[in-house]
Amino acid sequence: DQMVQAARSGRQNIAEGSRASATSSQTELRLVNVARASLDELLLDYEDFLRQRSKRQWAKDDREAREVRAVGRAGSAAAAPYAPWLSHADPGVVANAVICLIHQANYLLDQQIAA
Fold it and tell me: What does the pLDDT read at residue 43?
């Protein structure tokens, strides 16, 4: 599945970029950029998922999106705090939560690229 591959690629390139940072900043930057591109592809796939099912995409300032972002700001690396959204019966809620997480990951990658 294309979405699974994009997610795996993003995760793998983030991990490899992190390992490469100790030896080569060029390699780190290249891998982080590849990870960013993979996550952009995944983001488009989730947006298409919502559109094809006539599900509303949360706006950045919608209550639900702010709640998901607040979990990330709390500093927890665990997945459990995201369970109310990622385990939701409505696939639109799950997709929107994943979109929020992709935006957060992209923001962090952009900060790393700019550094």
Answer: 96
Angle at 7 between CA 22 and CA 96, to 5 degrees: 125
Positive or negative, the CA dihedral 1, 101, 78, 16 is positive
Total structural domains within the chain: 1
pTM value is 0.86
Residue 109's domain spans which residues? Answer: 2-114
